[in-house]
Amino acid sequence: MPELRDITVLIVDDDPVVTAALHAQVNRVLGFRVVGIAHTGHAALAAAGRFAPRLVLLDLHLPDMPGLEVAHRLRRPDQPPTDVIVISGRKESATVRAAMQRGALYYLVKPTRAGILEQTLLRYAATAEQLESGGRFAEQQEIDRIFRSLHLDQAARPKSISAATEQAVLDALAGVEEDASAHELAGMIGVSRATARRYLEHLAERGLVEGRPRYGPTGRPQNRYRVR
């Protein structure tokens, strides 16, 4: 797989066990690198100023200040620009709304499975890449697709697409060195080539997978896919 630019991550949580687990999970996702860990709000703000992380994974329960206050301060002009994904055990609608109002891009509920976190990070990366392209969106549908991808809109998944197989496809593609065809992927996860192609096309539409034609000696192109 081609080398991707690292998305730097700051993890903020008062529990060392949680931060250690998140550190391991994030560093296993291609294209992401943890640059700092903070166990308090003040330490988080200091680390954000020092490392200028692209993304902060933020708990809301901190010993010295509320996590929502940290999110608010991270958006001040004197702080480097950063995105925030909340990871919290709190499920109150008022808390979720407050996190959104303070700029959180997404809200994950603890305990967060590694697969869910990985999928969230990959969609974040795909969305960030599209937003950094410097181009202009031609249609409203293109903007809609970005928001659906970023916020994990499950309604966008057709009934013929299962979450488990979708994740298996992503995991298999993440494990190859460069890219793979639908035929190769089918052998990796034990499905038919038609099924593999259907999932690959679906993931490409959601911005998680990139497909490119490769021309062989006969001149007939073969689509090859990789995780974005």
UniProtKB/TrEMBL annotation:
SUPFAM superfamilies found in the cross-reference section: CheY-like (SSF52172), Winged helix' DNA-binding domain (SSF46785)
Entries under InterPro entries matching the protein: 2C-system_Tx_regulators, CheY-like_superfamily, Sig_transdc_resp-reg_cit/mal, Sig_transdc_resp-reg_receiver, Tscrpt_reg_IclR_N, WH-like_DNA-bd_sf, WH_DNA-bd_sf
Positions where 4-aspartylphosphate occurs in the chain: 59
Subcellular location: Cytoplasm
Domain Response regulatory: 8-125
Protein name, per record: Transcriptional regulatory protein
Residues annotated as signal peptide: none
Keyword DNA-binding: yes
Pfam families in the record: HTH_IclR, Response_reg
Keyword annotations: Activator, Cytoplasm, DNA-binding, Phosphoprotein, Transcription, Transcription regulation, Two-component regulatory system
Keyword Hydrolase listed: no
